[in-house]
Amino acid sequence: MYENLVTDSGFGSFSIVMPLSYWIGVLIYVSTLLFILFSKLTVMITDTEIKIRHLLFFRKSIMLSDVVTSEIVSYGFLGYGIRISPTYGTVFNVKGNKGLAITLKNNRKFLIGTQKPDVLLLSILKDLE
Question: CB of 93 within 8 A of CB of 80?
């Protein structure tokens, strides 16, 4: 009855060998989940500029002297990360559907996604005065 279970590692042992492609798929899946869970957009406003940073991948500075308009907008799903939108220009978004839309003197547009849009707008308006 048990003679079919005898393997190289001994009587009654059982092992499953998964192909390498399976483990690569698992690694990609877990890495993607961890990236999404720990992904964040950092926005720092100083007296002269807005600094935007997304993890280790992206850094951008916008001079406050170049800002013509800034307003809080509620937008639909534009995607996460850095995107180009015909309405908002370059979009920096990690989650949510609220952000600060900025227009510069050279007509370039940016949208900075935020979970605290009022605080971000007040900080920019305070520094623009």
Answer: yes
CA distance 54 to 40: 6
Beta strands of 5-80 (E only): which ranges? 41-45, 49-54, 58-63, 67-74
How many other CB atoms sit within 10 Å of the CB of residue 93? 24
pLDDT digits 0-9 by tens, 41-96: 788 888 888 888 877 677 889 898 898 988 888 887 767 778 888 888 988 887 77
Asked if residue 27 lies in contact with residue 34, where contact means CB atoms within 8 angstroms, the answer is no
Torsion of CA 126, 55, 62, 118, to 10 degrees: -30
